Amino acid sequence: MSEYVNITIDGHDIKAKKGERVLWAALDNDIYIPHLCGIRQEERPNAGCRLCFVEVEGASRPVTSCTKNVEEGMVITTRSERVDRLVKTAFELILSDHNLKCRECPANRSCVLQDIAKKRKIKLRHDRFKSIVREFEIDDSPAEFAFDRSRCVLCGQCIWADREEAKVGAIGFTKRGINRVVTTFKDLPLAESICTQCLLCVEACPVGALYYKKNESDDSNKNSEKNS
Amino acid sequence: MQLIEGEKDQILAIVGEVLKNSPKQREDLIPLLQKVQAKLGYLPALAMEKIADGLNIPAADVYGLATFYNQFRLNPPGKHQVKVCLGTACYMVGGDITLESFERRMEIKEGETSPDRLYSLERVACVGCCTMAPVAVVDEEVEGKVTPTRVDGIMLALQDEEKKNEKELKSNQEEGEDA
Which residue intervals of chain B bear CATH 1.10.10? Predict the structure, then answer.
């Protein structure tokens, strides 16, 4: 048995490592599939964002590429009417409780949501679902970063970083449904929790929910540059 | 929620005992929490911390699970427990207004317990008497057509009862001193 399998994605012949999942095989070969919650090393993917749907020849309906292992001779199409419809709905649902003040957001222009919207030509603003943006107090207790839950898409990347990379376990998902949030034990501010402020969660955040605080000296530098 | 005198030792003893007699894998977390809640009436933060330590998982995970399921309560049951129905029929005739009235009168939010532990407030989904909507269950007693005015009445009755109890307690104490 060889270590690699041959698959076809959107007409490109690809050699993918055995046991690899379709999403990562595609991304490794510069074939774009939108995704938010996917974590390559994760044994049992969450498959919660519902954005990485693809068509697999022989399958009766689209499948999430983050959970599908590559198989010899697999033929995959990343776009179809059914896929686009599923992705659009999932994306609009994610946006329906997302704080869309992009201009005020530190992740503006580097945001994965903006990237998905651009690549899949889906509008960020839509009126199909009622917008339920909840108000949260911004947790700016840590020294270098802050957490604005109104921008959180609940992808779980920060929790993975906290658990598997930092080995801390300060944050996790709590509550259910529309009330679901990422928070600490007893909902304590991050600085009062066991958080070590290692910043790995900030690096992992694909949107502007966990972000670096603006350094005031940086600002004044910029201003002085402008003035000079 | 502030722990009352002696409660800390009680929590530690019960959690220690439950942990000793249970398997300690991650999948044992729900039965563990159920056992602790059955004995304590609720899940204090201290108990969740000790359980997390016992299972060697982050406390945030225990907290996440306890807040996910409705069966777990994080606040102690009050002496008087009020459950407001927000099932379809009650919701349609303003069950949320009833709940809000109780929240205002008790000065706590849904799911909380007053600091003196006299009152606790919960929301439930249908108690089976939709014709009386909006319904509230006050200390196992089903109350129908609970308008905000009725809420005032219910709360007044509860407060009166408490005052009477207090008086009795006092006079009993005095009698005891006299004797």
Answer: 7-68
Condensed to tens digits (0 to 9), the pLDDT of residues A198-225 reads 999 999 999 999 999 987 555 544 444 4
Within 10 A of B121 (CB to CB), how many other CB atoms are there?
24
Contacts of B45 in chain A (CB under 8 A): 185-186
Averaged pLDDT of chain A? 92
pLDDT band at residue A160 using 50, 70 and 90 as cut-offs: very high
Number of Cβ pairs closer than 8 Å across A and B? 38
CATH 3.10.20.740 fits A4-90, yes or no: yes
Give per-residue pLDDT as tens, A122-146. Answer: 999 888 999 999 889 999 999 999 9
Residue B160 has pLDDT above 70, yes or no: yes
List, for residues B131-154, the tens digit of each pLDDT value: 999 999 999 899 999 999 999 999
Cβ contact, residue pair B59, A169, below 8 Å: yes
Q: How far is CA B168 from the centre of its chain?
A: 26
| Residues from B in contact with A at Cβ < 8 Å | 45, 48-49, 57-64, 67-68
Q: Which are the contacts of A75, defined by CB distance < 8 A and separation ≥ 6? A: A7, A8, A56, A57, A58
Measured distance CA(A21)–CA(A19) in Å, rounded:
6
Contact A185 B67 (CB under 8 A): no
The topology (CATH level 3) of B80-178 is Glutaredoxin (3.40.30)
Contact A174 B61 (CB under 8 A): no
* A132-221 CATH fold: Alpha-Beta Plaits (3.30.70)
CA distance, residue B176 to nearest chain A CA (Å): 44
ipTM: 0.86
A185 vs B contacts (CB less than 8 Å)? 45, 48-49, 58-60, 62-63
Q: Give the CATH fold of the B7-68 domain.
A: Arc Repressor Mutant, subunit A (1.10.10)
- Measured between alpha carbons, how far is B58 from A166 in angstroms, rounded to an integer? 13
Sketch the domain layout of chain A as residue ranges.
4-90, 132-221
- Check if the beta carbon of residue A35 is closer than 8 Å to that of residue A23: yes
